[in-house]
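Q: What structure does this chain adopt?
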Amino acid sequence: MSPASAPLPAAGQRGPAEHAIRAQIVEAARLHFRHYGYDKTTVADLAKAIGFSKAYVYKFFESKQAIGEAICAQTLGQISAAAEAEAGKGRTAEDKYRRFFRAIVDASADLLFNERRLYDIAAVATRERWPPYLAYLDTLFAQLRTIILFGRESGEFERKTPVDETCRAILQVMQPFVSPAMLEYTLDQIHDGPTEVVSLVLRSLVP
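A:
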């Protein structure tokens, strides 16, 4: 790949987009954040763990937040990938949507219960509207749009409402169970709540 066509680093990152040292820093940060939390970890802590100077870490990331964003992008990317894979197993649009929503809820809850400190980073990203979170929303929107269009083509879903308006509305009612900033406050409804939301959405999509 020529320099002109090489991928650019994400916002807040410096140097080549693909670099082994960058990946090493991110992995060390992930381990530190898991044990000590995002707020209690400094760039100096990460540099010491890897055996680099703090100045060397800053050659790849302009701030601790930039490192947090890289980890958040990986974490949220795993959730959206799980949702896409599960939706792909459905044969009907209804089944695809049920699987899609359930996969997001399950993966998000798993992160909350088993990787709480990484979940907290995703929650911060949600509240502060970090680029990885906005990209995550765009990905979910695109995945949902594919399901809705499939349902319209198969005759399962109505076709009168503009598709993007439909997708925005559906994502809005899903938020309490898929937003990292909101899920922990709806845990008492996590079993029945998503099912009720799915039923409501599917009724609204009837032709």
